[in-house]
Amino acid sequence: MRNKIRQQDIDIYANDKVTVELQCIDKPVYTYWLTLMQQGNPGPGGGVTPCNPPTNISPETLGYFSAHKTQTISIIAK
């Protein structure tokens, strides 16, 4: 069975401009999102007890603060 949220294949032709963007996050933000993901995916035998994920905001609050570093590169297809 095919994934219904599958991105369409994209044809690239000569002289098409291709742009790739990479966004980087720091470890505390990664840990926040990883913890949320682990709580929402129960495995065999049940899941984990829900709790607030670790935060990088003081005093402790539900949420996170993040600034993203972005790198972009563009090329012309040959």
Q: What percentage of the residues does DSSP assign to strands (E)?
A: 15-25%
Q: What percent of residues adopt helix (DSSP H or I)?
A: 10-25%
Number of helices: 1
Q: What's the β-strand tally?
A: 2
The dominant shape is elongated
Rg computed from alpha carbons, rounded to a whole number of angstroms: 19 Å
Task: Write up what this structure looks like.
- With 78 residues, the chain is α+β, with helices and mostly antiparallel strands.
- The protein has a domain at 12-37 and 53-78.
- The protein is 17% helix and 21% strand.
- It has a two-stranded antiparallel sheet.
- It is elongated and about 55 Å long.
Notable traits:
single chain; 78 residues; alpha+beta; two-stranded antiparallel ribbon; 1 helix; 21% strand
